[in-house]
Amino acid sequence: MTPQDFVEMLRRHDRFLNRQSGGQRAVLTNFDLSGLRLANLNLREAKLTGVNFRGCHFVNADFSFADLFAADFGNAELRGANLRRADLRGTRLCETILRDANLKEADLRPGALVIDQQQPRNGSKVDFTVEKTTEGNDRIVDLTGADLCRANLEAAKLQNAKMEGADLNRANLNLARFEGANMRGAVLSEVRLTGVDLAGAKVSVASAGWPHALRDTMRQHALWSDSDGRKGRRAELAGADLQGLDLSHAFLSGADLAAANLSGANLSDTEFVSANLSGANLEGAYLSRTDLSGTKLTGASMRGAVLTSVRMEPVVQHRRGGQGTKLVKTNLSNADLTSAQAAYTSMHKARLDGLKYDGIVEAISDHMHRLQTA
After folding, report:
1. Structure letter (DSSP) for residue 138
2. Consecutive sets of 10 residues in the chain, 374 residues long: mean pLDDT of each?
3. Which of 293, 299, 327, 340 is the most exposed place for a label (fewest CB within 10 A)?
4. CA separation (Å) from 188 to 66, 167, 209, 218, 271?
C-alpha cells in the first residue's frame, strides 16, 4: 500500500463514518504501517486486525469501536487517543505512550490470529481469520512499561494482561477487570480503584503510599527482571531505610537489599527469590506467604518476626555464560531468629549453620513432619 492509497482509504472511511455516498469502511488485515506519523487520525470503527503500528505517532487519534485484534503498537505514541470500546485482544502495547488516552470499556483480554487452513496456492495474499475464544495459546496483551498516566481505563477488560512496570499514575481504573494480570512494579499513585477486580493479579496496591523514588525503583526493577537485564535496572537498595513500610505483594526477586532496614515492615506475599538480604534488619517484620527461596539472609536479624507460610526452597539458577545450572539454597547462616514466631514455614534444604533460633527451627521441623505424616 502506497501513501497515496492509504490517504485515499482514509477519505473513503471518513465518508463511511459520515454515511455519505462513496464511503467504505477501512479494512486492513496484517498490513505493515510501522513508523507512520499522523495527528488526529480518525479510524473509528475500522477493521485493523493484526496491523503493525510499531513506532507510529498517532497523537489524539480516534480508534474508538475499532477492531484492533492482535495489532502491534509497540513503542508507539497514542497520547490522548480515543480507544473506547476498541477490540484490543492480543494486542502488543509494550512501552507505548498512552497518556491521557481513553480506553473505557476496551477489551484487552488474550487473543490470537489463526491462519486460514484453506490457503490460496496461486501466490496471492495469505488470509487471516480471527480466533474469537480467549483460551489455549492466545497471545496475552502486552502493556509492559506502557505510559498510562491519566488514562481512562474505566470498565476495561485486562484479564491476564502483562503490565510489568506500567505507569498508571492518576489513571481511572474504576470497574476495570485485572484478574490474573501481571502488574509487578506498576505505578498506582493516585488511581481510582472503585469496583476494581484484582483477583489473582500480581500487584502491590500498597505502592500508592511508597515514596516516589521507591516507586520508580520498583518499576525499573520489574522491567529489568522481565527483560533479563536488557531494560530497566536492578533494585539497588543496600542499606535503604524501609522501616515500617507496607511492601506487601512487592516484587523484589533478585534485588540487592544487603543491610537494609526492613524492621516492622509488612512483607506479606512479597517475592524475594534469589535476593540479597544479608545483614538486613527484619526485626518485628511480618512475613506471610513471603517467598524467600534461594535468598541470601546471612547475618540477617529476624528477631521477633512473624513467619507464616513462608517459602525458603532451593532454586535452580543458570550459570553465567550458559555453562549449565546450579542449585541455590536459602542461606540463613548466622541469621538471628530469636523470639520469632513461625508456622507452616518451609526451610527445605536451607543453610542453617550458625543460626540463632531459640527453639524455632525445631518447632518448624516438628510441625512440618506432622503435616507430612498426617
Report:
1. P
2. 86 96 95 93 96 97 97 97 97 97 97 57 40 58 97 96 96 96 95 91 93 96 95 97 97 98 98 98 97 97 95 86 82 95 86 84 53 47
3. 327
4. 28, 7, 9, 12, 18
Number of domains in the chain: 1
Burial status of residue 374 (CB atoms within 10 A of its CB: 0-12, 13-18, 19 or more): exposed
- Domain of 351 in residue numbering reads as 239-374
In a domain, 194, yes or no: no
The full DSSP string for 328-369 is: E--B-TT-B-TT-EEES-B-TT-B-TT-B-TTHHHHHHHHHH
Residue 275 belongs to domain with CATH number = 2.160.20.80
Write down the pTM of the prediction: 0.86
Q: How far apart are CA 39 and CA 41, in angstroms?
A: 5
Compute the distance between CA of residue 90 and CA of residue 374 in angstroms, rounded to an integer: 46
